[in-house]
Write a structure and sequence with these properties.
Strand content: under 5%
Oligomer: single chain
Order of helices and strands: HHHH
Radius of gyration: 27 Å
Distance between the termini: 42 Å
Largest sheet: none
Number of strands: 0
Length: 98
């Protein structure tokens, strides 16, 4: 009679014991370890992308500066505008999570 008043009855909860809790905690630990490895690898990919972008920008500046300065200024303006938009989007996304 007390069970019906406290909420819906779930027969699986009666079968949940200490062995299941240990197994559940092991799964949680494994998931946390996997998440850490993914974040660790994402940092390396981000660093590689950043270095590649810097190399491409440097080559572009060295190549375009003596040849076509106006085109170089236009490309830099577009890159700055895109970076600002991406930064604003990232800021809004992180604000929504909080």
């Amino acid at each position: 009679m007390f069970r019906s008043q406290s909420g819906p009855y779930n027969p699986l909860l009666e079968k949940f014991n200490e062995a299941h809790i240990d197994k559940y905690l092991d799964y949680m630990q494994r998931d946390d370890d996997n998440e850490y490895q993914i974040k660790k690898s994402n940092r390396w990919f981000s660093l590689v992308y950043f270095i590649l972008i810097l190399i491409i920008l440097t080559i572009g500046i060295v190549y375009l500066l003596p040849r076509d300065k106006d085109l170089l200024i236009f490309i830099i303006q577009v890159i700055i505008i895109l970076a600002g938009g991406i930064g604003a989007g990232y800021g809004l996304k992180s604000r929504e999570r909080d």
